[in-house]
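G., the chain you wanted modeled:
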Amino acid sequence: MQVRSLFLLLVLILVAAAAEAGKNKKEKAKKDGSKCEDWRWGPCVPNSKDCGLGYREGTCKDESKKLKCKIPCNWKKKFGADCKYKFESWGGCSAQTGLKTRSGILKKALYNAQCEETVYVTKPCSSKIKSKSKGQ
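Predicted structure as tokens:
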């Protein structure tokens, strides 16, 4: 009988601890105390130059916030860092222009960014000739 009571007490303690842990996670998510749900976010503005660490300003009614953000230094400046695209494979090399082309379809627009649905990029053709098989 004492073993059952001890076991029941242990189970109750574990359930209480789990409930408290879940409560703490919810409190951390709402630590700013804002009840506003319609936030409008601006672009990520780097602290220096055109990439790296920076901040993004948001407004909702009469509230405003700043969030830390980061713009990768290899991002496509033409599209913006908040527009994510799924790109096709590179097309063949055009003899007339010396460029390869591929298109990308919008996958995700972060922070309500205004993004184009389809984008096209080009790059110079490689001057190297790749051999398909080695050792034959």
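The first helix runs from residue 2 to 29.

Shout if anything looks off.
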